[in-house]
Each structure stands twice: as structure tokens, then as C-alpha cells.
Amino acid sequence: MMAVLGRARWAVTDGWVVGRANMINWRRNPGLIFYCMMFPIMTVVFGYVFGSAMSVAGGGDYREFLMPGLFGQAMMFGVVTSMLAVTSAVSRGVTDRFRSMPMAQSGVALGRSFADMFSSLIELTILLGCGLLVGWRWHEGPGKALAALGLLLLWRYSLIWVGIYLGLLLPPEAAGAAYVPLLPLTMLANTFVSPEKMPGWLGTIAEWNPLSSTVSACRELFGNPGVTGGSWVAEHAIELAVAWPVLLLVLFVPLSVRRYRTLSR
């Protein structure tokens, strides 16, 4: 047991060192900061332009319905950021330099996850500010609001590991094109429209999209409109918002560490 705890502490320590290096690099690249701000700014435009033309199943203000969907979508788009960072590090030889050092095998991947969570916190903070500007509010108290933010960050953290694995697996040009399949996945959910307003088969697919569970749970915890029952998925949104990310972590953390160990072999 002590040996296992020692290896875990070693991995976390090495991961923190690598994460700090990645965060310093992020801070020294203003272009990355600008990129993180662009999506939140676009949400302000989207909310003002389309808010008055959309309706919500069960009634309510569309901007309050929209913002939890955009929070979840922004966290999901972050998977591409992780992929690009990993493929860039591999192609520039940074990953090989880390592998040549006496450090835990999982330290590099863990450090990448720490750095990406740091940037995700900044992005989510900006996005929350933009939501407040367009009239979004939470109505269930600070405790439930913090729980909703925790679910969003859990969702993001699980997708970081998906991005790390794919970044270690795919060439840089393929990582750059990841937005093409990712955009339909974020649209085929309850991000912008309630599944009840979709054709039956399409609504069922949208309900079972893991993104939909996180978004539904956030709407419920924030007290925003669009929370509807009638299906097992809708009635267990909070439980599924925890279960889906945990499942992704169970699958992709060991896959990422194994891929890192066998890289270039």
C-alpha cells in the first residue's frame, strides 16, 4: 500500500511540474488567450440576435435556456484544444524530452490535464460573465450553482483525457480537423433546442448524448427553463452527468498512459 501511495504521489508531483510548464507556455502566448475569449464573446452575439426568435419547451426565457447548453458545448470543444496541444508537443519533440527524464510515466499526461483544467477555468469564468451580460441568472442558490459548475468541470476533465489519447494517436493535421465531427455531436443534443421539439428518433438520440445529461443537470441545478421529464434519461440527468464523465475517465486515463509509454515504439 505504501509503495502504491508513493508512486501516486510521485506521479502527481511530476504532473504538477509539467502542468506548470504548460501553463507558463499558455501565459506567454496571447493568441491562445484571445482564442479562449472568442467563443464567450460569440455567445453574447448569439444570445442577443436569436434570443427573441426561439421558444423553450415548457416556456421560459430562451437566453436562460441557452446558456447552460453553451457552457456544456464550450467544455466539449475543449477536447480539440487538448488534442492540438498534445500533437504539437509530440511533433516538436517536447514529449520525447520529458520521456527521457527520470519521472513518472503518467506525469506528462497528468500535467497536460492540469494545464488544460486551468485554461478551462478561465474560459468558463469568462463565459459565466458573458451569460450574465445577456440576462442569464441562476435561481437555486449558490450551493446548487457551484454543483452545476462542478459537473461542467468534471465533464471537461473527462474530455481532456479523450483529447490526450487522440492527440497521442493522431497526426497534427487530423487533430486540427477534429472540429468537423465534433460540431454535429454538440448540435445533436439539447444544447440549442429541447429534444421534445425534434422528430421522435432524433430526440431520442439527442437525449442519450452524454452532453445532454450535463446540460440538463445544469439547467436543473441553476433553475433555468427547459427541464422536462417523461423519460428515464431526463429524470436521472444529474446521475448521468456524473456517470458519463466517470466512464470516460475509466476508459481513457489508462489508454492515454499506455499510449504514452508505447509512443514511437
From TrEMBL:
Domain of life: Bacteria
Domain ABC transmembrane type-2: 30-263
Gene Ontology cellular-component annotations: ATP-binding cassette (ABC) transporter complex
Family: Belongs to the ABC-2 integral membrane protein family.
Entry membrane topology: Multi-pass membrane protein
InterPro entries: ABC2_TM (IPR013525), ABC2_TM_bact-type (IPR047817), ABC_2_transport (IPR000412), Nod_factor_ABC_transporter (IPR051784)
GO biological process terms on file: response to antibiotic
GO molecular function, one term: ABC-type transporter activity
Main location: membrane
Compartments reported by the entry: Cell membrane; Membrane
Keywords: Antibiotic resistance, Cell membrane, Membrane, Transmembrane, Transmembrane helix, Transport
Record protein name field: Transport permease protein
Transmembrane domains' residue ranges: 32-50, 70-94, 114-139, 145-168, 175-193, 237-257
